[in-house]
Amino acid sequence: MLQNSRNDVLIIGGGVAGSAAAIALARQGRGVTLMERDSEPRHKVCGEFLSGEALEDLDALDIDVASLGAVPINYVRLAAARNAAQAPLPFPAASLTRKALDTALLAAAVKAGVRVETGRAVQSLLRTDANCWRATLEGGATHEASTAFLATGKHDLRGHGRPKNPQQWVAFKMYYKLSRDQTADLGDASELTLYAGGYGGIQPVENGVTNFCCVVQQRYLVEAGLRWELLIQRMQQDCPHLAKRLTGAVPLLDKPIAITHIPYGYMRHTTEDGLYCIGDQAAVIPSFTGDGISIALHTARSATSAYLAGEPAAAFQKNLRAAMKSQMRLAELAADGLNNALARAVLPFVLRVWPGAMRVTASLTRVTQPAHVVPQVLAG
Ligand SMILES: Cc1cc2nc3c(=O)[nH]c(=O)nc-3n(C[C@H](O)[C@H](O)[C@H](O)COP(=O)(O)OP(=O)(O)OC[C@H]3O[C@@H](n4cnc5c(N)ncnc54)[C@H](O)[C@@H]3O)c2cc1C
User: Fold this and answer.
1) Between the chain's N and C termini, which has fewer beta carbons within 10 Å?
2) 138: burial class by Cβ within 10 Å (0-12, 13-18, 19+)?
3) What CATH number does the domain containing 190 carry?
């Protein structure tokens, strides 16, 4: 039977941004329906690094990451070829699998009174009149509200898409059990490894597992032979430090999780009345910053405040973009630097002689907090 409903707010997508917004709105007494296409949280392509700001936002939502098994991360390490250098992180940080985090956030949304519908994708989100957004789910059920929050992450909803990034990036995530020596050597660091066609982050997550999440240009993947086994070999040839790290490592997934067409650098600048775009639907920062979750939480928080304060969605989106612009540009410049052979050659040496460089970079790329939003950047 179709279950149609009328609500104050619809939220499309039950990842970090959607769940965080749902919790905030339900706590303010709004009737919220959140629609998530997966029947339960699953592993997602993500480095799973939680920056200081992300931890603060999660704490405000009563998500106790320590009790979920989050691992403290105290250092950032940069590795290219055989060289590595590290610096202490200038703020507290942690790592936690997305499966654990997304599960906790959805449970908190249910507890806050959100009507959560899982297991069916929203197929269309249409404005039927000046005061009504209608979401139609697979199977035909519809939900209506005067306001909608678009939080579908990397996935575009028909009619609300983003331009494709001409630079074709592909991202993979694999979990490993590292050898005992390499686990000790990695320690409590988030390690960024650089190679000719992109970069990868390696860091411990809960239960003694290590996350390796990498981003490669499409051409690098093609040159490597379009297969994960060949790609990971190629990355290890390019970055012997990574080869050392993975010596004796046991892969814990049958195959890596992958996503394509990541619109890095995207910032939404317009929206329709009553449609707030949050998380990756608002902005997609280069992954090496380890800041996407923080941005998802910030945009959820700032959009819900804007909605509750009666700020129109279009004004919110415009202000958000203005607030994030310089941070995004710096992150993109830094990402270009990581893809530059000379930069790859000298960066670890620079860090070795000047470990404070990483702290300086982190503070330079952090923007001051405007009325609504925003985050910080760090390498990780
Ligand atoms: C390679 C890589 C590494 C990264 N590493 C980090 C990191 O270490 N730290 C960090 O902070 N950030 C990192 N990020 C970024 C971070 O993962 C994202 O910015 C963050 O997940 C965005 O949250 P979101 O809520 O917008 O999207 P998501 O968390 O992706 O949630 C979107 C949800 O919408 C659902 N959905 C999609 N379409 C529909 C539909 N039609 N109907 C219903 N539901 C739908 C999806 O199933 C999903 O659950 C990384 C990103 C990449 C690509």
Assistant:
1) N
2) exposed
3) 3.30.9.100
For residue 133, being part of any structural domain is answered with yes
CA distance 334 to 365: 10
Query: Are both 154 and 294 inside the same structural domain?
Result: yes
> Is residue 16 lining ligand 1, measured as CB closer than 6 Å?
yes
pLDDT at 358: 55
Tell me which residue has its CA closest to atom 19 in ligand 1.
292
Q: Count of CB atoms within 10 A of residue 211's CB?
A: 23
Q: Is residue 84 part of a domain?
A: no
Structure tokens at 352: 């070795």
What is the per-residue pLDDT for 44? 96
From 287, 320, 328, give the residue whose CB has the most ligand 1 atoms within 8 Å, as the site to mutate.
287
- Would you state the structure tokens that stand for residue 95, as one six-digit string? 């790592």
Report the separation in Å between the CA atom of 345 and the middle of ligand 1, taken as the mean of its atom positions: 32
Q: How many CA atoms lie within 13 A of 47 on its CB side?
A: 30
Q: Which atom of ligand 1 is nearest to the CA of 282?
A: 26
DSSP-assigned letter for residue 283: B
Q: For a pocket test of ligand 1, which of 37, 170, 377 has the largest count of ligand atoms closer than 8 A to its C-beta?
A: 37
- Domain residues for the domain of 328 are 9-66+96-162+265-365
- How many Å apart are CA 159 and CA 218, to the nearest integer? 26
Residue 196 pLDDT class (50, 70, 90 cuts) = confident
C-alpha angle 173/178/181, rounded to 5°? 145
Q: Which residue reads 């575009």 in tokens?
A: 156
Quick one: pLDDT at residue 86? 87
The dihedral over CA atoms of 272, 5, 44, 106, expressed in degrees to the nearest 10, equals: 110
Ligand 1 nearest atom to the CA of residue 153, by list position: 27
The Cα–Cα gap between 330 and 333 comes to 5
Compute, in angstroms, the gap from residue 154 CA to the centroid of ligand 1.
6
Last residue of a domain, one of 260, 288, 307: 260
Q: How many domains does the chain have?
A: 2
